[in-house]
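Researcher: Next sequence.
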Amino acid sequence: MSRFTVEETNLMCIYNVGSRTDLLSELSAMQKHLQSDETELHDLTKSVIDKLTAMDDAEFDSISVELIPDFEEQED
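Model: Next structure:
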């Protein structure tokens, strides 16, 4: 998932609800609630939205498994 930075990936993990369209919707809704001093988060969110908009659903589906933590692997 080299297209996204670690920070972008973390943001997507927080707001991912299963599909690219829904993630875009969640990020857009969150962005509307940001305060004027939250410029770093605003810029990060805009970057993720731009990158998600540029990809199609099939490409998102291929990376979406990386957005869901595998708790079974962590239990060892």
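Model: The chain has five helices and no strands. Helices lie at 6-15, 20-31, 39-54, 57-64, 71-74.
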